[in-house]
Amino acid sequence: MSSPYWGEFLALAVIHFLAVVAPGPDFAVAVRQSVRFGRKAGIYTSLGIGAGISVHVIYTLIGVGALLHTTPWLMTAAKWLGAAYIFYLGVKFLASKPGSAGGVVADGKPEAAQQSLRQAFVIGFMTNATNPKATLFFLAVFTTIVSAKTPLPIQLLYGAWMCLVNAAWFVLVSVAFSTAAVRQKFLSTSHWFERVMGVLLIGFALRLVFMA
User: What residues contact residue 170 under an 8 Å CB cut-off, 6+ apart?
Assistant: First the structure.
């Protein structure tokens, strides 16, 4: 990346990192996946979250973001669709029953519930790709921080960086919450933990609806 764009990149990188670490649907899903299904599922969910960013990057760069920005009813529809998916996940987590999230085997280590790595990746991808807050964030970033004169290849590098940072952060979150001691503590009351995550997701969804 040539020097004229370093200032722009650093501003974008700092603002994006602060947005990533702020708790939201991505965080709730990454934690739940790691605790319930184990480290590998948590990591694949995190990779899905990182990949989901690419959806926002692509539609912003091809001009769909500008269309959403100038067409209020489309932006509202996008918010409702995203909120509906997050609400669906919340209801699914809220319906968790005792014993549904695995158990503890004889040596004291948590026993993972079953979920394919593909399913874990898709959950992460869809959670981020349908999040209206991410849509609003990219509209704000690419209309205020990133200059219209910034070449497309440089903007693609910005997008790739944000994908990597998202994935890396949630991989760290997954590793932290999938350690045996942490999982054993949470799995002893797993259904209540799942329900708390469900309430948080439903709260995020309702907030998005009221914002819409």
Answer: 26, 27, 30, 45, 46, 49, 50, 124
Quick: pLDDT tens for 40-66. Answer: 999 999 999 999 999 988 888 887 656
CB-based contacts of 88: which residues, under 8 Å, 6+ apart? none
Burial class for 167, CB neighbours closer than 10 Å (0-12, 13-18, 19+): buried
Which residues have C-beta within 8 Å of that of residue 96, sequence separation ≥ 6?
A: 190, 191, 194, 195, 198
- How far, in Å, CA of 140 to CA of 65, rounded? 10
The residue behind tokens 């993972």 is: 112
Per-residue burial over 38-63, b = 16 or more CB atoms within 10 Å of its CB, e = otherwise:
bbbbbbbbbbbbbbbbbbbbebbbee
pLDDT tens digit sequence for 66-115: 666 677 777 677 678 767 877 887 887 787 766 544 444 434 444 455 78
CA distance 140 to 119: 31
How does strand 103-104 pair with strand 110-111? antiparallel
Residue 35: closest CA among 196, 198, 176, 209: 176
In sequence order, the β-bridge partners of residue 111 are 103
Full DSSP string of 151-208: -HHHHHHHHHHHHHHHHHHHHHHHHHHTSHHHHHHHHTTHHHHHHHHHHHHHHHHHHH
Q: State the residue for tokens 């979920």.
A: 115
- 16 exposure class (CB count in 10 Å sphere: 0-12, 13-18, 19+): buried
